[in-house]
Amino acid sequence: APLVGVLALQGGFHEHKVMLARVGAKVTEVRQPKDLTAALHALVIPGGESTTMAHLARHLDLLQPLREFVASGRPVMGTCAGLIFLAKDVDGQKEGGQELVGGLDVTVHRNHFGSQVDSFQTTLTASFAPDRQIEAVFIRAPAITRVGHGVSILSSLDKKVVGLDPDGGQLAVAVQQANLLGVAFHPELTTDDSWHKYFMEMILSSLKK
Ligand code: GLN
What family does this belong to (predicted)? Predict the structure, then answer.
């Protein structure tokens, strides 16, 4: 079975471990640079609080090793704060704002859904399963407001359905760029393992290369 590391500095890493085990991965926690070994086939960056995660990663000298892991081409999934951490830019942030691992060519807007719908649950379709409704839990979630070339949108939300805009329109909430999968919501907090299964397929196909 592939060995998947879960960044375990703070946030919802435990639920990811459970989900990854359920889809057939061997799982290990990443807490310091020495945990990011060559033996890891993939990495998950969980939700939580992206500025806290960045401070901890800086303090533990994990930022550079994380960037190297991303650049190594091995699959990395970032969920919610993990997506923010993987993004190239954060909207509305000045020079020298929060530190990011980067690598995923998107801009994200933190806490996009504001206080009124701060947390909500909905169903989404994904491009890899267009005829299935997948449960999605959003908790002070970011939105993806810019998508670079080479980034594909796997899932979007209808702005009308979530009360963001009566005129509707689509908002990207899950994207992929080569080895990087970024998801604005919390797939580990539902019983639907579709996103982890999809990530597992990315891992298995990366192992064939
Ligand atoms: N609002 C958090 C942030 O900006 C993300 C929330 C989450 O991961 N559930 O980092």
Answer: Belongs to the glutaminase PdxT/SNO family.
Radius of gyration of the chain (CA): 16
| Residues 166-187 pLDDT 10s | 898 999 999 999 999 999 999 9
Index of the ligand 1 atom closest to the CA of residue 81: 8
User: Token pair of 85, please?
Assistant: 């951490």
The two tokens of residue 120 are: 């909500």
Please pick, among 15, 16, 41, 80, the residue that the annotation labels catalytic: 80
ipTM for this model:
0.95
Closest ligand 1 atom number to CA of residue 84: 10
Cβ within 8 Å of residue 119, ≥6 positions away = 137, 138, 139, 140
Q: Please check if 50 is assigned to a binding site.
A: yes
Print burial letters for 156-187: b (CB count within 10 Å at least 16), e (below 16).
Answer: bbebeebebeeeeeebbbbbbbebbbbbbbbb
Could you tell me where the beta strands, DSSP code E, fall in 53-158? 76-79, 87-90, 104-109, 119-126, 129-139, 143-147, 152-158
Answer yes or no: is 74 a known binding residue: no
Condensed to tens digits (0 to 9), the pLDDT of residues 24-77 reads 999 999 999 999 999 999 999 999 999 999 999 999 999 999 999 999 999 999
**Ligand 1: centre distance to CA 52 (Å):** 10
Is 188 a known active-site residue?
Answer: yes
